[in-house]
Design brief:
Blueprint lengths: L1 E4 L12 E5 L3 E6 L9 H7 L4 E4 L6 E3 H12 L4 E3 L6 E6 L3 E5 L1 H8 L4 E5 L5 E2 L4 E7 L3 E3 H12 L6 E4 L5 E7 L1 H4 L7 H11 L3 E8 L3 H13 L4 E5 L10 H6 L4 E5 L10 E5 L2 E6 L2 H4 L4 H10 L6 H5 L23
Parallel strand pairs: 14-15, 14-16, 16-19
Antiparallel strand pairs: 1-4, 2-3, 5-12, 6-7, 7-11, 8-10, 8-13, 9-11, 17-18, 18-19
Helix pairs in contact: 2-4
Organism: Desulfosporosinus acididurans
Cofactor: Mg(2+)
Function: Catalyzes the insertion of molybdate into adenylated molybdopterin with the concomitant release of AMP.
Length: about 350
């Protein structure tokens, strides 16, 4: 540490808290450890009876925690996020709008593997609202070797996507095809439609229309094609997704020439979930649990599609880690382990 005159301390970094006492008004830290002295602080320090103060030695190559945190946060920050001002070496990332949080898990690991670097986040693909705190970063020491921060900045640039970002959900035109002889012939009331419509609209999209098809492959295919012809950006096909002989929805989708990504997902509820594409239009086969379970595989993957992401089989199978819903009496998703 170094003892210097207050008048010469602009730009210096305080080595300890400095208490200000104003009788009957306040008693507490006026300047915190790590504070960088500014010109306007000089009169205050003098009024506190400080002629000299103790500061960190200004060794070449070392930078203050606030500057380090600022550079670290900017290196990791992508679109859809705002950063607050550094305070005691800490910066918070906040969602700038509603959307889905995307995190480069490998990127976060690489940064945290550097000595003295801390970057803590929420889980990947979590739905967030504007103003949600999604991450925080800081460095451990008050002064850190700039080489560490330069390496963090270099690492962040090696990834093709930002380490953290919030992607907004796009507004899709969604077609619904509800299958099943019992519904098609009016023997029972459709329960899928109201549930799907509510979810689609909550995500900011619109239902183009809902059509009904019996357990007939050609009729299901005609219904899907009709939605495609009318410009659907996504098609939801509900019912007929189990392995019973008369459940023909997966067969109908595959035999249309769709690119099948996955039939089955390591998620409970939602194991019989199907993802396919006809050109760039996602076709989702929805199992019966979507009707009665508040959160299923459908809720994990559909928002990702609404950001414009194209899902791969690897994306689906990775959901097995955290893919077990605990069926809590009061659902608190996404504030739980499901899908994490």
């Amino acid at each position: 540490m170094e003892k210097i005159k207050v008048q010469d301390s602009v730009g210096a970094v305080l080595i300890h808290d400095m208490t200000q006492i104003i009788p009957g008004v306040t008693k507490g830290p006026r300047f915190r450890k790590g504070h960088v002295v500014r010109e306007e602080d000089i009169p205050i320090l003098l009024s506190m009876g400080k002629e000299h103060i103790y500061v960190w030695d200004q060794n070449p190559g070392l930078i203050h925690e606030n500057e380090a945190a600022d550079r670290l946060a900017k290196a990791a920050c992508g679109p859809g996020l705002t950063l607050d001002e550094p305070k005691e070496g800490k910066i918070t990332f906040t969602a700038a709008h509603d959307g889905l949080l995307y995190i480069s898990e490998d990127g976060i690991l690489a940064l945290n593997s550097l000595e003295y670097i801390i970057l803590a986040t929420l889980h990947n693909h979590r739905p967030v609202k504007k103003g949600t705190k999604v991450a925080g970063t800081r460095v451990v020491p008050l002064m850190i070797d700039e080489k560490v921060i330069l390496e963090a900045e270099r690492i962040a640039k090696t990834f093709s996507t930002p380490l953290l970002e919030v992607r907004p959900l796009k507004s899709f035109k969604v077609g619904i095809v509800t299958t099943g002889n019992e519904i098609y012939h009016g023997r029972i009331q459709d329960k899928f439609g109201p549930v799907l419509r509510a979810k689609v609209e909550a995500w900011g999209s619109e239902v183009l229309k809902q059509t009904f098809a019996s357990d007939d492959i050609s009729l299901i295919q005609n219904s899907i094609q009709d939605h495609l012809d009318q410009g659907a950006d996504m098609i939801l096909v509900s019912g007929g997704m189990s392995v019973d002989p008369d459940d023909v929805t997966p067969t109908a989708i595959k035999e249309m020439g769709a690119e099948l990504i996955s039939y089955g997902a390591p998620v409970l509820p939602g194991a019989m979930f199907l993802v396919a594409y006809i050109n760039d239009v996602p076709i989702l086969g929805l199992p019966g649990c979507v009707m009665y379970s508040k959160t299923t595989a459908f809720d994990l993957f559909a928002p990702r599609l609404l950001t414009g992401e194209r899902l791969s089989r690897r994306d689906i199978v990775k959901a097995g880690h955290g893919g077990l819903c605990l069926d809590c009496p009061v659902c608190s998703y996404p504030h739980c382990s499901f899908g994490k």
